[in-house]
Amino acid sequence: METIYDFTLPKGYLDASGELHRKGKMRLATAGDEISATRDPRVLSNPSYLTVVILSRVITEIEGVSAITATLIEKLFTADLAYLQDMYQKINDIEPPTMTVVCPDCGKTFEVPLNFTGEG
Length: 120
Known about the structure:
three-stranded antiparallel beta sheet; 28% strand
């Protein structure tokens, strides 16, 4: 079973010296990753920070970067954050969010998956 996945960020992490880092690795999440992230004080005060904390735990490497932290994840471009969120959902077999839509021609209502990365 594959547990570590390579990725290439669409924009890349731009460090303080102006160097761009795009390649990295993400591992499968564990129950402990998600439980401990929900107990993080930053998440308790701002639940939308959960994604940042979880990604900082499961991203094991960004080429040329010594440590993956929540602060680093905060500095990613929004396109890269969306890409990593989508990848996290895919490799951990999490159902993508859906939206109820109505066909303008026939009036039928149905669910469509939302894809924030523009892929697929």
